[in-house]
Amino acid sequence: MAQPRIAVLIPCYNEDAAIAKVVADFRAALPGVEIFVYDNNSHDNTVAAALAAGAVVRREALQGKGHVIRRMFADIEADAYVLVDGDDTYDASAAPEMVRLLLDEQLDMVNGQRVEQAGEGPIGAYRRGHRTGNLVLSGLVQAVFGDRIQDMLSGYRVFSRRFVKTFPALASGFETETEFTIHALDLMMPLAEVPVAYRERPVGSASKLRTYSDGLRILRTIVALVKEERPLQFFTLAGLVLLALGIGLGVPVVITYLHTGLVPRLPTAVLATGIIMIAMLSFTCGLILDSVARARKEAKRLAYLAIPRWGG
């Protein structure tokens, strides 16, 4: 059997303090593989450092990690794709086992679950707000799409060709990790998650993640994907909230009418009726859009199956 083509993909924005070491570490961990660094408008020495380290350097002008991922996945041809951040926070020595697991088990995604030391302890090498946000957002996705992924926002993953070439890549920023996870869970792809060491950034490297604004963008992405992929659940929940509100407003009016034969609060009665009608409309929308989502899911599944798996 021919040797698999493996590509290491490193999106970068102002990472001259770390990128040379990241390239060197992955070249040592995966000898002979192609390493691609995609520069996203850096204004430091990232490009020069990556070139000096021996990486293939390309550029993406649209600002944002999601745009870089879209370009990478479109440009690069390989059998296995190792995606890692360029900030030297992930352990390159875990890559061979992640690639082996992907190829031997015919998986579509292997996610690197961040731990203090591989196999021990909780996520802890980043700010408390990031850790809490990851747990909350991962919990929301697990509740809707399943709990096969514990660290939804990890930036260290290995993908199959099937995954990469059928991934829609609609996000523009850090919410792209959310898209990875939901895409895999929604299509019920075979996947695995392994613990990987996670460390602090090197001196001179600064995080590009903005805790609150990026957290809100990720939450908005989750809500949008739930609406798109699970419309029946989304609109049923909305309908139940509206129905409860309408009943809460309408019951006192009905009780007054039964006792007196009068409707003294006519505006409230009209409002309650309107809210209940909207709730019924929400249920109807959910049923219709669920059929549309099922058809879209079937089309995505067929596109996925059209890409042959590695090894025949």
Number of strands: 7
**pLDDT below 50 for ≥5 consecutive residues: which ranges?**
118-124
Under CATH at level 1, the class of the largest domain stands as Alpha Beta
Structural class computed from helices and strand pairing:
alpha/beta
Q: Based on CA inertia axes, which overall geometry fits?
A: elongated
Indicate the radius of gyration in whole angstroms. 24 Å
Give the biggest beta sheet: 7 strands, mixed
Per CATH, what is the topology of the largest domain?
A: Spore Coat Polysaccharide Biosynthesis Protein SpsA, Chain A
Secondary-structure element series:
EHEHEHEHEHEHHEHHH
The largest beta-sheet arranges its strands as: 3-2-1-4-6-5-7
Task: Chart the SSEs and their pairings.
Elements: E1 6-12, H1 19-29, E2 34-39, H2 46-52, E3 56-59, H3 65-75, E4 80-83, H4 95-104, E5 109-115, H5 128-145, E6 157-160, H6 161-166, H7 176-186, E7 191-197, H8 211-229, H9 231-260, H10 266-305
List the main descriptive attributes of the protein structure presented here.
312 residues, 10 helices, single chain, 7 strands, Spore Coat Polysaccharide Biosynthesis Protein SpsA, Chain A, 7-stranded mixed β-sheet, 52% helix, alpha/beta, 2 domains
